[in-house]
Each structure stands twice: as C-alpha cells, then as structure tokens.
Amino acid sequence: xxxxxxxxxxxxxxxxxxxxxxxxxxxxxxxxxxxxxxxxxxxxxxxxxxxxxx
Amino acid sequence: xxxxxxxxxxxxxxxxxxxxxxxxxxxxxxxxxxxxxxxxxxxxxxxxxxxxxxxxxxxxxxxxxxxxxxxxxxxxxxxxxxxxxxxxxxxxxxxxxxxxxxxxxxxxxxxxxxxxxxxxxxxxxxxxxxxxxxxxxxxxxxxxxxxxxxxxxxxxxxxxxxxxxxxxxxxxxxxxxxxxxxxxxxxxxxxxxxxxxxxxxxxxx
Lengths: 54, 205
Hints:
The complex is a heterodimer of chains A (54) and B (205).
Chain A: H1 4-7, H2 11-31, H3 37-45
Chain B: H1 7-24, H2 34-43, H3 49-53, H4 55-59, H5 68-83, H6 88-93, H7 99-114, E1 123-124, H8 130-150, H9 155-164, H10 168-185, H11 189-192, H12 198-201, E2 203-204
Helix pairs in contact in B: 9-10
C-alpha cells in the first residue's frame, strides 16, 4: 500500500504522472468552460444550459 | 557537544550528521516510522493544523521558532538536498516548483487552441465595465482568501482532497458548498447579468 511514491511509482515516473494528470485536468476543465466565470455561475442559477464536460 | 576546532573536525561532524540522517530514511534502520516520516517530508502542504495542536508553540505565544513546520522545514531542506539529491528534478519533487500546476495551465492552453477560443479579454455582462468587473473579481478573491483562513484551509483541500480519502467531512463540505451555491445564486443573479445565456449576454473588451 501507500505511499505510492516512491514504493509503487518511482520518483521519476511520479513527474511524468504529474505532468499527464496536470495537462489532462487543465484540458478537461477548459473544455467544460471552467475558463468562463459567467458560465460557471450560470450553472447555479440556471442561465447556462450548455455547461458540459468534454 | 564540543564545537569542532579544525575544518577536518567540522567536516567529520557534518558527515556523521548526514550519515545518521540517511540512516533515518532507510527501511532497514527505521522500519517503524519511515512511512509517516517520508510522508511529512514529501507531502507537507503547510496547512498549519499541527501548529494548532502543538502545546509548545501555543505556550510560546506563537513564536515562529517553535512552529512545527518551521523546525521540520530545516530538516526537510537537508533531506531534499542530501538524502534525495538536489537539482531540478528534486525541486519539482519537493514542491519548490509545482510541476502539476504548470501542466494544468498547459492543458488549459491546449484546450483553448483545440477549441479555437484563444483570446485576451475581460469577460463581463454588457452593463458592467471591464474595470468594475476586475475590481469585483479582486474583492471576491480576497473574500475567498479570508474565508480560507477562517476555515484553516480552502474548499479545494476540504472537498475534493477530503473525498478522495473517503473523509465524511469532505463529502459534507461538498454538499454544503454546492447546496448553498444553488440556494443563493438566484438572489444575486440580477447583480451579475441581465442576459439569459452567457454566450449572447457576454461583452468582450
């Protein structure tokens, strides 16, 4: 069991995993219009019907 | 402990300290507490929860020299420099350069390029000036920071990270955050926008 680093995932692989997770996270959030504050707040008051994930 | 008299003695003292430190981080010599020790060396987020629980720090009236993270930070620097080895990779691994945050920006930029919506503008409702929008954003960000200090942590730590380790408190936080946002959003809607959809109500400047 954990900690995953460095027991299961090596220190070097850890950086690669961080990069992949980071890029994926940023990409998905931007695709879901996380970059638009108005779309985000619209989610809560019902004015944005097109908020989507991917 | 006697102070070293010659440079050779000093070197020997430093060497013996470092070899003891390396021993502390080897499984053979510290099989009991290696895991929590490595966890606190590698993953301390400086949340300061330990400072609240430390009676020495409290009794000192909050003197920084007795702050638990202040003292462990000294050891952490020795650890990252001498046990793990220095260099750029070490800097990334020990949070001095946060690789994942850079990667998130890179991913978001990539997404903007792919969806062809890359531009520089201040997003705002048509009846609000760009300047007013920016001032409001700064005030909102400040309130968020004050709230995070009151709560001794932010929603990002409590809700998603808490839920990832199956913390019931994390789930309650998530329900409270989204629940109150849904409950309150309708009443502040007029402040925000007069349009019905962001795509046709948003002014760009």
